[in-house]
Amino acid sequence: MALKGTFRPDTIITHAGLDPEANHGIVNPPVYHASTITFPSVAAWDEAHKPDFKGYIYGRYGTPTHRAFGEAVAAVEGGAGCIAFPSGFAAVVGAILAFVKTGDHILMVDSAYFPNRRLCDNFLKNMGIETTYYDPLIGGGIRDLIRPNTKIVYTESPGTGTFEIQDIPAIAEEAHKKGCVVLMDNTWSGGMFFNAFKHGVDVSIQAATKYIVGHSDAMLGTVTANAANLPAVEAGFKALGYSVGPDDVYLGLRGLRTMHVRLRQHQENAIKVANWLESQPEVARVLCPALESFPGHKLWKRDFTGASGLFSVLLKERPKAAVDAFLDTLKIFRMGASWGGYESLALPVSNVLHRSAVPWTEKGALIRLHIGLEDADDLIADLQAGLSKLTQVAKAA
Ligand SMILES: Cc1ncc(COP(=O)(O)O)c(C=O)c1O
């Protein structure tokens, strides 16, 4: 029997979606590889096509492995249901397309994951769907941007690369007054450090590729929705033909079971490294919501229960060669897209240059760090060596 009752988050994340008795007592669900699912009779086939059918019809619509994963993520996030998508960005696209049609308008946060802009400015624009970008710090002021045809208010908190914390309850309140659906990219919190639904979000999106999978070895996305909006998400998923491989879903489920433990360690290491960076002469600012010096810190403290391992460092203005030397000197931090795995990563952030609602005017290089599960003192020593090299190259320039 699946564990029934009211439990605290660590117990939920450990047990949600499990049903060992349905599988010979084996703790984890099997990985079902399925396309065709057969039916013994016309009556059974007809039954399977009734709207309230609870079984499995076709591999693309999911197997018990997908269902176990979806149930687990929905329980962790506190939503009515969750659907797995083949990547985080597929989840973003699927969630948006579930709610818009030609002639509609989207309010997109200016600090959203950059490919959202490509989606809105090209693909959606060509379909006759208009987007307005808004200041991530707009709060209740979003009311002035909502038009009669605005369908989606899209949020992402903290913002990509720059970590602005949005006042989600204030935004959601105004959006709901005008009948808009509130979407949030909740990847940074793993759905664990921010309860999107309690703060007014209708649809919570995660790049499960990051903290849920947690080991940099699978692409996966999730869309978790409240009861009112789950049917639209399910219909969109089916209409668009998405399908997630069972092995990747299984990796997501496996990663989820330890996400709470990993996230706490990411947090502890990140805060230690961020505090150290703040005291470094080559550093102009550390953009990390958990630091008191960060402008969004109070909002973060009000709404979040923790911080994950991703933040940015704004370096003082130095020649590009010096910044490159900093990155090239790092040994533990490797350069690479994505984040949320156990390993530390560093990457220059350039997409801020595309901001349109609040243009980015800082002159120094912005470096995004993902603080992994290594020893924090080793990470600090690595960064120290990089910053020393930066100073050396800058002086010689
Ligand atoms: C905040 C955020 N959302 C969505 C995505 C997209 O996820 P994926 O790479 O799994 O498509 C990313 C990827 O970096 C991300 O950082």
CA-based gyration radius: 22 Å
Q: State the major sheet.
A: 7 strands, mixed
Shape: globular
Query: In the residues, how many domains can be counted?
Result: 2
Oligomer: single chain
- Give the class-level CATH name of the largest domain: Alpha Beta
Describe this structure in a few short sentences.
Helix content is 36%, strand content 15%. The chain folds into 2 domains: 247 residues, Aspartate Aminotransferase, domain 2 (3-Layer(aba) Sandwich); 138 residues, Aspartate Aminotransferase, domain 1 (Alpha-Beta Complex), CATH 3.90.1150.10.
Overview features:
397 residues; alpha/beta; Aspartate Aminotransferase, domain 2; Aspartate Aminotransferase, domain 1; seven-stranded mixed β-sheet; five-stranded mixed β-sheet; 12 helices; 36% helix; globular; binds pyridoxal-5'-phosphate
What can you tell me about this protein's structure?
This protein has 397 residues and is of the alpha/beta class. Helix content is 36%, strand content 15%. It is built from twelve helices and twelve strands. Helix 5 links the parallel strand 2 and strand 3 (130-134). Helix 3 (64-77) runs parallel beside helix 8 (246-256) and helix 11 (320-329) runs antiparallel to helix 12. The longest helix has 21 residues, at 376-396. The radius of gyration is 22 Å and the shape is globular. Residues 87-89, 92, 113, 160, 185, 187, 207, 209, 219, 221, 338 line the site of pyridoxal-5'-phosphate.
SSE topology sketch:
Blueprint: H1 9-15, H2 42-48, H3 64-77, E1 81-85, H4 88-97, E2 105-109, H5 114-126, E3 130-134, E4 150-156, H6 168-177, E5 181-185, E6 203-206, E7 221-225, H7 230-240, H8 246-256, H9 259-278, E8 283-287, H10 297-303, E9 310-315, H11 320-329, E10 334-335, E11 345-348, E12 366-370, H12 376-396
Parallel strand pairs: 2-3, 2-4, 4-5, 5-6, 10-11
Antiparallel strand pairs: 1-7, 6-7, 8-9, 9-12, 11-12
Helix pairs in contact: 1-3, 3-8, 9-12, 11-12
